[in-house]
Amino acid sequence: MSAERTEWWGFSQEHGWIVHDREDPRNVSGSLIIHFFRCSDSAEIVIPRDEWEPPEIRGFKRYLASIANEALRSLAERQLLKCQGDYQQTKGARLEGIRRDLEDQKRAEKDERNRRISAKHEQYLRTAGLPAHGRATFVRFVRNTVCWKCKTPINSIDDLACTNCRGIICHSCGACFCGRE
């Protein structure tokens, strides 16, 4: 996709020249907030979607056309071209950093979820009078089912498996097949 189709350039009275990059993975269609890159200081700014409208923010063509003074319009055009050039030089590394941060965040969320599932599983085993043992992920095939104890939907992709019985550990109540009668 060309830069013209993936980048929206505009001018904000508050922020100056800004770009909304559709290649930024945070800028998904229908999102309630939009992530912009502010050219003046290379800062990230977040604007609620409902505030992304004139007169707060205007597309670069309308903004340039609104400048009556030829010298000022020419200056604004040169500033925009410089900003676009500077952005293109840093765009790849910037987007890669954003993707990496999102992956790290997703990994941290999954680790926290797994920690909570493990704690619930340990509590389940203690309550059932069973010895504690490890848990791990076993993704040999995708299995969607429900917990035998609480009927919560569980699956072999998102949930952990017990190392003892190899059953999927319920993320809601911590049950596996250990101690099932």
Summarize the structure.
The protein has helices at 3-6, 60-65, 70-127, and strands at 7-12, 16-21, 33-38, 43-48, 57-59, 135-136, 144-146, 153-155, 161-162. It has 181 residues and is of the alpha+beta class. Strands 4-3-2-1-5 form a five-stranded antiparallel β-sheet. The protein has a two-stranded antiparallel ribbon with strand order 6-9.
Across the major sheet, the strand order is 4-3-2-1-5
Question: What letter string, H or E per element, gives the SSE order?
Answer: HEEEEEHHEEEE
In this structure, how is the largest beta sheet organized?
5 strands, antiparallel
Question: How far is the N terminus from the C terminus?
Answer: 58 Å
- The whole-number mean of residue pLDDT values reads 89
Shape: rod-shaped
Structural class comes to alpha+beta
Beta-strand content estimate: 15-25%
Q: What would you report as the Rg, rounded to the nearest angstrom?
A: 26 Å
Integer count of domains: 2
Can you describe what's shown?
With 181 residues, the chain is α+β, with helices and mostly antiparallel strands. The chain folds into two domains: 3-107, no CATH class; 128-162, no CATH class. Helices cover 38% and strands 20% of the residues. The chain is built from three helices and nine strands, in the order H-E-E-E-E-E-H-H-E-E-E-E. It has a five-stranded antiparallel sheet. Strands 6-9 form a two-stranded antiparallel ribbon. The protein has a two-stranded antiparallel ribbon with strand order 7-8. The longest helix has 58 residues, at 70-127. It is rod-shaped. The protein starts with a helix and ends in a 19-residue tail after the last strand. The mean pLDDT is 89.
